[in-house]
Amino acid sequence: MDRPQTWIFLFLPVLGLNLDPAVSEIHSLTYIYTAFSKPVNLPGIHDFTAMGLLDDRMIDYYDSDVQKKVPKEDWMKTRMDEDYWKKGTQSRQSKHQWFKVNMEILMKRMRQNESDVHILQWMHGCKGKENPDGSLRFVQGKDMYNYDGQDFLSFDDANAVWVAPVDAAVETKRKWDDVRVLKEYTKGYLENECIEWLTKFITYEKEQLRKAKPPKVHLFTKNSRVQTNVILTCLATGFYPKDIELYIKRDGRTLTRQDGVQTFGVRPNEDDTYQRRDYVEILKSDKSKYTCHVIHRASLVDIEAEWDRRLPDIEGNGSSIIWVVGGIVAVVVLLAVVLGVLFKKGIIGGKDGKGSSRSLKCSSCSSDHSKEVKIPLDDANGEKVHLNPDTDSKKSDSSSDSGISRSERNVPAARERTALSDVGTSQRKNEARSRTRSDELGPNTLDEKFR
């Protein structure tokens, strides 16, 4: 009887693949693919996902729902052209089909029924150590498969042989070991092509770091229309590039839209930097600890600022009241000065004591036509082709896992593993020679399926 499977196996292989965090001058480039035998109908879980990681940080992503390879770092958006992403999407779609075929092969080999959920994963990549001149020296390469949370097959780069840790993989190991060009290609990709792409990506990332500007973080409140509430705002400003993560937390728990968090999104400043402002309405009497967590990867900023519990002026009009009262006092003082001057000059308060203005007569007029002028006292106010790399990296930066090679167009999915026994040695060699270079392996044109 088959043991029950569950979607949690999705994460177990990744945890066991020794994805060590980058330390000092060690850098890594890794590609991970995950496929389910059938839909699990859970939020965020897709039939097929693929991602590229540079030093364990995601730089691109693809899933079977969106069906498009997209950048996850700003420098990937700016340095890799449209053709790179177009061909990368085609390559990921090809890999998706390869996974479907091989999932069926493994289920039949292990006599598993279709009612259970099974998971197949593939990971490949390399690590390089930075030399004094900035170049990278190959340290380690990985190309391995995982099925239902257990290691299934891996490539021993030092000895150029496939390793089968479980009996079910022995048959595939024997067939793949017999294909010399497959082993040569895999070893060549891990030690050379992967390192070349790792070097290129690290260079792009460093260029961005030199231009990056860190955010300044401010956490403050203003009055709400509800007298018992205040609006807590987190503002990150002055950063570049614009990719940023911002989270308002209450006692360590990240608040969401369901908690009332609103955002203005990322907006440009006048100095070519950016700002982001998020806010949430809370009770003035709330004694919880509120913090703002800001992550700006480009400038290596990861900061969490705490609200100092300062409240805005009472009624929210304290400063306005001060300005209004001050204005009134100034007007009264000015009016008193003007009246005093007018009084001393005899313009007002004359002996006749008749009011707020006196009559002035025109000296040039005759006595019979004298004119009186009234003076007012007020004024107005105001990716390793499974075997075949996808594109030629020598031609442009757009060549990478991103493209579909000539040999891939002849075979539905590069490195699609059809029965090796059905493919002649000369055909395999010809197809291997026709491959072009890529940043990741792809389903290979030698058609080496698991059977």
From TrEMBL:
Region annotated Disordered, chain positions: 373-451
Ranges of Basic and acidic residues compositional bias?
Answer: 373-398, 406-419, 428-451
Record carries keyword Glycoprotein: yes
Q: Which GO terms describe its biological process?
A: immune response
Which residues constitute the signal peptide according to the record? 1-24
The keyword Transferase belongs to this UniProt entry's keyword annotation: no
> Which Pfam family is an annotated match for this chain, by its short name?
C1-set
- Which residues are in coiled coils? none
Any transmembrane segments, and where?
Answer: 321-343
Q: Which UniProt keywords apply?
A: Glycoprotein, Immunoglobulin domain, Membrane, Signal, Transmembrane, Transmembrane helix
Q: Where is the Ig-like domain?
A: 215-304
Q: Which GO terms describe its cellular component?
A: external side of plasma membrane; extracellular space
**InterPro entries to which the protein is assigned, alphabetical:** Ig-like_dom, Ig-like_dom_sf, Ig-like_fold, Ig/MHC_CS, Ig_C1-set, MHC_class-I_related, MHC_I-like_Ag-recog, MHC_I-like_Ag-recog_sf
**Which family would the database say this protein is a member of?**
Belongs to the MHC class I family.
Q: Indicate what this protein is called per its UniProt record.
A: Ig-like domain-containing protein
Please give the organism. Answer: Larimichthys crocea (Large yellow croaker)
